[in-house]
Amino acid sequence: MTLASLAAFGGALFILFFTPGPGNAAMVARTIDAGPVHGWLYGTGIITGDIIWLTVAVTGLAALAEAAGPYVWIGKIIGVAILLWMAWSALQSGLNPKPPAPVTSGLKRTAGYGATYLAGIAMPLTNPKAILFYLAFLPAFFDLTTVTPLTYAVMVAMMLALYALTTAIHVTLAERARTWLLEKGVKSRADLVTAFIMASVAVWLAIS
Questions:
Q1: Average model confidence (pLDDT) across the chain
Q2: pTM of the complete model
Q3: How many CA within 13 A on the CB side of residue 195?
Q4: Is residue 91 within 8 Å of 192, Cβ to Cβ?
Q5: For residue 133, with 0-12 CB atoms within 10 Å meaning exposed, 13-18 middle and 19 or more buried, which class applies?
Q6: Of 57, 78, 111, 167, which has fewest CB within 10 angstroms of its CB?
Q7: Low pLDDT (below 70) residues in the chain
Q8: Pairwise CA distance, residues 25 & 200, whole Å
């Protein structure tokens, strides 16, 4: 790939990552509900799934991915279940507000982090928008057969840099909102909104 092709790839990524969508909405909601660490973990899961699709496209495994299409519902079920669990947790927090307290159980904290990361991965792996971008849009505009290991590394580095910027913006703004909500004592209402957003994303993921 030429420098012009890489520049076009970066522009396409910018549009993909910064366009408002369920992934960014869920990331913001997760940050407001559970804090910035969860927001970053959700974003890390999303970019992990995106890199998986890029790898599938570059290595010529698109046909295999298409053959596995009927089994995508398994990933959807997992993602939907985790999102609904997060929505239920936020709903409970909204209906029964309690002062914020640190999680003392290392096992509980690790399990929560793992669930957030897995939910992030499930988003692009079962998102038609991401699938079309990596398996249909990219091959139509770029000759992926010419991608070398070095070019692939550059492409992944571009993805990580752009998505780190995307995540930083969304999580930082969401964390500021979370801090304000805690100071004003109205986070319980935000939790109810968060529950609605997470449940809506779960429904969208299930029917898309």
A1: 76
A2: 0.70
A3: 15
A4: yes
A5: buried
A6: 111
A7: 1, 60-76, 78-80, 82-83, 86, 90, 93-111, 181-191, 198, 201, 205, 208
A8: 10
